[in-house]
Specification:
With 398 residues, this protein is an alpha+beta fold. Among the domains are: 120 residues, no CATH class; 131 residues, 2-Layer Sandwich (Heat Shock Protein 90), CATH 3.30.565.10. It has nine helices and eleven strands. A hairpin with a 4-residue loop joins strand 3 and strand 4. Helix 5 runs antiparallel to helix 6 and helix 8 packs antiparallel against helix 9. The longest helix has 53 residues.
């Protein structure tokens, strides 16, 4: 019955049943009229037979005027009489009184000790014109009502398509209606909600972009000041810090675009080893081989957005190093799976808990896995977690 779950299907089913019942009622009424006509005709024919017998006993002849008044004719053609009598015998109706249909005509056989008559009843049942007109009017009214209801539901389909468009991140939709029905009320309320959400997101984007723009200025000044330092080691360290801050602001800009569904993916094929190497470079750490060990058993190609996916691996590497007991992480590429292992205590909460933004974290803002999950969802990939013998493993699979 899954085909009758939609409102359109239910309405169609109800009207189909209504029309079917109307047709059955029409057929039953026609059959009832036919039955009543047959009964009245039989009564009339028996009355004619009784009258003719009595009249013949009294006057010794057949009252042809009476027959004409009853719209009944006497069959006199000898050849036709023979054919009709043969027909009655074949039907097993060669009795004193019998009625049959011969060549679409109602024939009456009257046989007694006085006379034998074959009569043709020329009375026809009246065509039920009034009944046909009434049923036709009702039928077309129900049909017009069906199309009127279906047409009234058409805005609901349009509203569903616009909601689907809205769920895909397109906020530039308008579904306001000037009608007065309940569907129009829902459409207008949804249009109002979309307008409020659009304005809210716009104000949030302006706020975040203003903050990031204001942060760029002191970072740029800090980089200029660091260039004035005479100690080359301290100058390089300060330069690295400001580069890191500038990179974080760029990452926050990407996060803002991802969460607001305002990011166009540039999907291209990349080797997982190349993605991993680019992610390690993004960490901006000295001597990365001291912290990261890579094993490539089976390299493979992924169809991903380079900037976003490298951000995923970079965040996982950063977390793995940060929470590792020995500040070391082992990366394994095999069987279309990227795994990161580190010696660490198991997660205190189930993995989905860490997908929430700003969850409780001792060494950060609690955004790392939230960003990872958001980007992986866009790429229709999954993150898995296991803990075995003191080793935490995070794996990315398609």
């Amino acid at each position: 019955m899954s085909g009758f779950t939609s409102l359109h299907s239910k309405i169609k089913l109800v009207f189909s049943i209504t029309l079917l019942l109307l047709a059955l009622l029409f057929i039953i009424s026609i059959k009832y009229d036919r039955m009543k006509y047959e009964e009245s005709t039989e009564v009339q024919e028996r009355a004619i037979s009784h009258y003719l017998y009595n009249y013949y006993l009294k006057y010794g002849t057949i009252d042809k005027a009476y027959l004409e008044a009853q719209n009944v004719s006497l069959v006199t053609d000898k050849e036709r009489i023979i054919q009709i009598e043969r027909h009655f015998k074949e039907k097993g109706k060669a009795k004193h009184y019998a009625v049959t249909t011969y060549h679409l005509k109602r024939i009456i056989l009257i046989r007694n000790d006085r006379f034998k008559l074959i009569l043709e009843n020329r009375n026809k049942s009246h065509y039920p014109l009034k009944r046909v007109i009434i049923f036709s009017i009702v039928f077309f009214l129900i049909l017009m009502l069906y199309f009127w209801v279906i047409r009234s539901l058409k805005p609901l389909s349009e509203l569903k398509n616009k909601i689907k468009t809205f769920s895909n991140g397109n906020l530039d939709i308008a579904c306001r209606s000037d009608k007065k029905d309940e569907i129009a009320e829902v459409a207008n309320e949804f249009d109002h909600a979309v307008t409020m959400i659009r304005e809210l997101l716009h104000s949030r984007q302006l706020f975040l972009r203003a903050i990031m723009h204001e942060l760029k200025t002191p970072i740029a000044k800090g980089r200029l000041v660091s260039e004035m330092l005479h100690d080359e080691k301290n100058k390089q360290r300060m330069h690295s810090i400001f580069e890191r801050l500038n990179l974080l602001i760029d990452e926050f800009a990407k996060i803002e675009k991802i969460t607001s569904k305002n990011f166009e993916l540039t999907i291209k094929p990349y080797k997982m080893s190349d993605l991993l190497e680019a992610s390690i470079d993004m960490l901006m750490i000295e001597h990365p081989k001291h912290y990261i060990t890579t094993h490539i058993q089976e390299d493979y190609i992924l169809q991903v957005d380079f900037e976003l996916f490298t951000l995923v691996i970079k965040n996982l590497l950063d977390n793995a190093i940060k929470y590792s007991q020995d500040r070391h992480v082992t990366v394994l590429i095999e069987h279309k799976t990227l795994s990161l292992d580190n010696h660490a205590t198991p997660l205190a909460q189930p993995l989905p808990h860490y997908f929430e933004p700003f969850h409780s974290s001792q060494k950060g803002l609690g955004l790392g896995l939230y960003i990872v999950k958001s980007i992986l969802d866009i790429h229709q990939m999954h993150l898995h977690y296991t803990h075995h013998e003191g080793i935490n493993r995070f794996s990315i699979t398609s």
